Amino acid sequence: MTRDRPEEADLPTATGRDAEPFADEAKRILKAEMVRRGFSFKRLATVLAALEEGPTESTQTLINKVNRGRFSFAFFIRVCRAMGISAVEIAPLKVNSSSSSARYEA
C-alpha cells in the first residue's frame, strides 16, 4: 500500500500497536489511581454496578477495557467518581522533534 502523504507514516496503525502514547497514558493514569485507592477490578465493577449511573460492566470487561487503554472520557469520569476521585494530575506533553515532523509523547 502506498501512502499519499509522507506525514501519514507518522500516524498510528489500525492495530494501535505502533504509537499510542495517549492510550498508554490513559491506562497508566487509571491503573495508578486504582492502586492509590485500593481498588481491584472486581471491587470497581461492584461499585460501578451499585451506582447505577451507566451500563453495568463485568470485571473481565473492565480489565479488557482498561488494559487496552481505549475508553471514552465518559467512562473515565464514571470510574473516577466511583473511586471518589475529584482531580487527576496529567503530566505536560513532551514534543520530540528528532524526526522531520514533530511527534508528541505522553
Tally the helices.
4
Order of helices and strands: HHHHEE
Largest sheet: 2 strands, antiparallel
Task: Tell me the fraction of residues in β-strands, as a range.
Answer: 5-15%
The CA-CA distance between the termini, in Å, is 29 Å
Strand numbers in spatial order across the main sheet? 1-2
Shape: elongated
Low-confidence stretches: 5-9
| Computed CA radius of gyration, to the nearest angstrom | 17 Å
Provide mean pLDDT, rounded: 79
Instruction: Assign a percent range to the helix content.
Output: 40-55%
- Quick one: how many beta strands? 2
- Overall structural class, as computed from helix and strand content, comes to mainly alpha
What does this structure look like?
It contains four helices and two strands. The two termini are 29 Å apart. A two-stranded antiparallel sheet has the order 1-2. It is elongated. Helix 2 (41-51) crosses helix 3 (59-68). It is 44% helix and 6% strand. By secondary structure, it is mainly alpha-helical. It has helices at 21-36, 41-51, 59-68, 73-82; strands at 94-96, 103-105.
SSE blueprint and pairings:
Layout: H1 21-36, H2 41-51, H3 59-68, H4 73-82, E1 94-96, E2 103-105
Helix pairs in contact: 2-3
